[in-house]
Inverse folding.
């Protein structure tokens, strides 16, 4: 696969190479392709920039120019990841360098690979064209201005590559800053744009407090640590403020209502809360309040009160709370856990009445639910009848056993008298024999 050529190579015809180890830049020209007639003509380059050491060597068919910059100078591409302020200063330096270049013999070529930047963010050029000797041979102001704008786009916008900015700006999606640069039609307009951005960045920086990176990292770590500790505390405070306190107040109000024999007020105070959120005593009071509102006869009320004591299992409390709140299916499940058929039967009867009055159900849904509930009711009635039949059989068996016991006692008494009468003659005979 053919290696893509740099813009500098395309414009000069030279092979451009950077040796990172030796920190040198080499341009190799084919002597047959350039106008240079004598290598002495290239000596003009050595005098152009004191910060760049240039050596010029000529072989049979090549002219090799080697540039050795100072160690502190960096390639232009290294600064694309710097902060906005540093890049704006470099852009300003580049514009000034182009604007202040007035040599008639040395011609500029502006592209990222041809630029070096000092520690002070000044811009220097690796290669210059020499009139009638090295390309570019002629000074083209329009082309130079396009190269300058494109290089500034790479530096200050950085969304695309140099070649893309050069050729495809009409079809690319550009930022506001990139559009501003493209709208500039003079070097002075470019300089004004960049100076405006520098001033904005300086105003922004003046409003910020700069700290050493190590100190910033420490502060950031402390911030996250403190935040990690505060968040649980804040969450608990909010939870306590909006949930625990109102719930605690509701428990107190319901207790006062229960003491004052106001079951309706107990129910109202505890309506928003699930039984699992209530202490045992509160569940007991709420269950008793719902029972008080149930339509039960005296015998039923007495039976319920016998099982619904403070020592009873919490499931009994939850059952009557579910009944009172109209959660009949839940009450049915609790009754099954308790294995209490009477409670299950009562829940089914309440559930059946509620479904009959539920207008939100369709006819098919209502019929299906009623059939299921009726099946449970019928099953319970059959089991109840079977238990009653067994109890009657057991009672009859007990009565028969009781009647048979006196008859067996009389038979045992008669047998005893006969045995005594048989024993008396034997005893008399023994006495007579003894007298003889």
């Amino acid at each position: 696969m053919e290696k893509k050529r740099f813009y500098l190579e395309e414009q000069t015809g030279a092979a451009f190479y950077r040796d990172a180890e030796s920190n040198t830049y080499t341009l190799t020209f084919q002597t047959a392709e350039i106008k240079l007639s004598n290598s002495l003509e290239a000596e003009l380059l050595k005098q152009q920039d004191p910060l760049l050491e240039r050596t010029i060597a000529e072989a049979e068919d090549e002219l090799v120019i080697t540039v050795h910059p100072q160690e502190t100078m960096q390639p232009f591409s290294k600064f694309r990841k710097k902060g906005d302020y540093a890049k704006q200063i470099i852009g300003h330096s580049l514009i000034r360098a182009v604007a202040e270049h007035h040599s008639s013999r040395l011609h500029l070529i502006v592209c990222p690979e041809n630029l070096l930047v000092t520690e002070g963010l000044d811009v220097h050029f690796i290669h210059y064209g020499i009139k009638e000797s090295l390309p570019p041979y002629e000074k083209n102001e329009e082309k130079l201005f396009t190269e300058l704008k494109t290089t500034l786009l790479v530096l200050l916008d950085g969304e695309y590559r140099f070649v893309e900015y050069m050729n495809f700006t009409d079809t690319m999606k550009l930022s506001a800053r990139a559009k501003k640069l493209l709208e500039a039609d003079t070097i002075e307009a470019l300089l004004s744009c960049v100076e405006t951005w520098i001033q904005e960045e300086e105003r922004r920086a003046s409003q910020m407090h700069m700290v050493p990176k190590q100190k910033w990292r420490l502060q950031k770590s402390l911030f996250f640590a403190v935040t990690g500790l505060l968040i649980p505390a804040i969450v608990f405070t909010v939870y306590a403020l909006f949930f625990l306190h109102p719930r605690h107040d509701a428990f107190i109000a319901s207790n006062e209502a229960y003491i004052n024999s106001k079951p309706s007020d107990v129910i109202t105070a505890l309506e928003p809360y699930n039984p699992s959120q209530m202490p045992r005593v509160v569940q007991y009071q709420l269950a008793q309040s719902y029972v008080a509102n149930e339509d039960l006869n005296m015998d039923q009320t007495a039976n319920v009160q016998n099982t619904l004591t403070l020592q009873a299992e919490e499931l009994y409390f939850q059952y009557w709370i579910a009944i009172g709140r109209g959660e009949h299916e839940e009450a049915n499940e609790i009754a099954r856990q308790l294995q209490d058929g009477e409670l299950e039967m009562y829940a089914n009867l309440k559930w059946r009445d509620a479904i009959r009055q539920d207008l939100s159900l369709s006819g098919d849904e209502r019929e299906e639910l009623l059939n299921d509930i009726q099946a449970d009711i019928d099953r319970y009635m059959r089991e109840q009848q079977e238990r009653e039949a067994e109890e009657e059989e057991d009672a009859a068996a007990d009565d028969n056993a009781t009647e048979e016991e006196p008859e067996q006692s009389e038979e045992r008494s008669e047998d005893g008298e006969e045995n005594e009468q048989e024993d008396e003659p034997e005893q008399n005979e023994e006495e007579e024999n003894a007298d003889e």
